[in-house]
Write a structure and sequence with these properties.
alpha+beta; 60s Ribosomal Protein L30, Chain: A; Phosphoribosyl-aminoimidazole Synthetase, Chain A, domain 2; six-stranded mixed beta sheet; 33% helix; globular
Length: 345
C-alpha cells in the first residue's frame, strides 16, 4: 500500500485553494512600487523614492502576535489578528522615523483550512492598508504533528526606509523635554498570558462575561486589534521635529521608555493624566496584580510615546487630537537622573 502527502496530514490542494482565496486581499495592498504578481518565488518592491534622499537607509522589524491567538481561537474570530501582526512590526519601524514599504507574513498551522487562512490574510491586508505598506509575499506552512489541527501561529516582517540623517534614536533627549502619550486600543498584543490567567483562572470568568463597568465582553475586549500609528506619526514628523518615539509593547512604559533615553535622563510619568480605558480599569479593580507589575506587563492605555520640547509637544497633541483618529495628551516630562521610567500616581 502506497501513502501520499495527504495521508501524512498535508493537503496541497487545500493550500492551493487558500492561495486563490487570498489573492484579492493581497492585491488590495499593492501600490505602483510592487513588482511582479502573486505566486512568484520572491516579492519585489521599487525604492525609487530613495533617489530623493541623501543617505537612504532600510530599516526592518519582525514580530508575532503571541498568545492573543488563543483568544482568536476561543472566539473563533480570525480576521483581526492579522492587523495585530502588521501593527507589531510597523509600529516599531516608525519609532525610528522609517516609512513602512512592504510586509511579509508567515503562517504555521497543523491543518490548512482555506477559509480560515483567508480570514487571517484579510486581517493582514487590512493592517497593511492602514500602514500604507504593500503585502508582497508570505508563506503558509502546514505542519501536522508540530501543531494541533486547529492551532496556528503568525510571524511578520516589515521593511521601511528613512534618510539616515533623519533617523530618530532619542540621543538628543534632555531634561525639560516632555512626554506625549497616544491612547492605545487595549492590550494590543502584549501581556496576554497574564490577562488570561487573571480572567480565566483567577476570576474563573468566561469569554462572554462582562465585568466591572465594561460595555464589552471579556473576549471582545481582549481581541480588539492593536492600534496602527503609522499615519499619525508620519503626519507629526511631516511638521515637527521630535526627539524620541517609543512603541509601548511587552514591558509596558517601565521597560520600553528607557530604551530611547540617554544615560543621564529619566522619564517621569503621571498616571492621573490619561484615561486608561475600561479594560485596564477593570483589571485594576480586582486588585489581583501589583501596581508595578501592571505597568511592566501592560501598556495601561498608552500605546505610543513621543518625546519633544515643550512647545512642539503641545502642538503635537493639538495636531493628533484635531487631525487624526488618535487621542493624545502630555503624560510626563524628562528630568535629570538615572535612566529609567518612574510612574507616579
Amino acid at each position: 500500500m502506497k501513502i501520499s502527502y495527504e495521508d501524512a496530514g498535508v493537503n496541497i490542494s487545500e493550500g492551493n485553494r487558500a492561495v486563490d482565496l487570498i489573492k484579492q486581499s493581497v492585491k488590495s495592498t499593492f501600490d505602483d512600487n510592487v513588482l511582479g504578481e502573486i505566486g512568484l518565488f520572491a516579492g519585489g518592491y521599487s525604492i525609487k523614492e530613495a533617489l530623493s534622499m541623501e543617505d537612504p537607509t532600510l530599516m526592518a522589524a519582525t514580530d508575532g502576535v503571541g498568545t492573543k491567538l488563543m483568544i482568536a481561537q476561543m472566539m473563533n474570530i480570525h480576521n483581526t489578528v492579522g492587523i495585530d501582526l502588521v501593527a507589531m512590526c510597523v509600529n516599531d519601524l516608525i519609532c525610528q522615523g522609517a516609512k513602512p514599504l512592504f510586509f511579509l507574513d508567515y503562517i504555521a498551522t497543523g491543518h490548512v483550512e482555506a477559509e480560515k487562512m483567508q480570514k487571517i490574510v484579510e486581517g493582514i491586508a487590512d493592517g497593511c492598508r492602514q500602514a500604507n505598506c504593500a503585502l508582497i509575499g508570505g508563506e503558509t506552512a502546514e505542519m501536522p504533528g508540530m501543531y494541533g489541527e486547529d492551532d496556528y501561529d503568525l510571524a511578520g516582517f516589515a521593511v521601511g526606509i528613512a534618510d539616515r540623517g533623519n533617523l530618530i534614536d532619542g540621543s538628543n533627549i534632555e531634561p525639560a523635554d516632555v512626554i506625549v502619550g497616544i491612547k492605545s486600543s487595549g492590550l494590543h498584543s502584549n501581556g496576554y498570558s497574564l490577562a488570561r490567567k487573571l480572567f480565566f483562572d483567577h476570576l474563573q470568568a468566561k469569554k462572554d462575561d462582562k465585568v466591572h463597568n465594561m460595555r464589552e465582553t471579556i473576549g471582545q475586549a481582549l481581541l480588539k486589534p492593536t492600534r496602527i500609528y503609522v499615519r499619525t506619526i508620519q503626519k507629526v514628523l511631516d511638521r515637527y521635529k521630535v526627539k524620541g518615539i517609543c512603541n509601548i509593547t511587552g514591558g509596558g512604559l517601565i521597560e520600553n521608555v528607557p530604551r530611547i533615553l540617554p544615560e543621564d535622563a529619566q522619564a517621569v510619568v503621571y498616571e492621573s493624566r490619561w484615561e486608561k480605558g475600561e479594560l485596564f480599569e477593570a483589571i485594576e479593580s480586582f486588585n489581583a496584580i501589583e501596581r508595578e507589575e501592571l505597568f511592566r506587563s501592560f501598556n495601561m492605555g498608552v500605546g505610543m510615546v513621543i518625546v519633544a520640547d515643550v512647545v512642539s509637544a503641545q502642538e503635537i497633541v493639538k495636531l493628533i487630537n484635531e487631525e487624526t483618529e488618535d487621542e493624545a495628551v502630555i503624560i510626563g516630562e524628562i528630568v535629570k537622573g538615572e535612566k529609567k521610567c518612574v510612574i507616579k500616581e
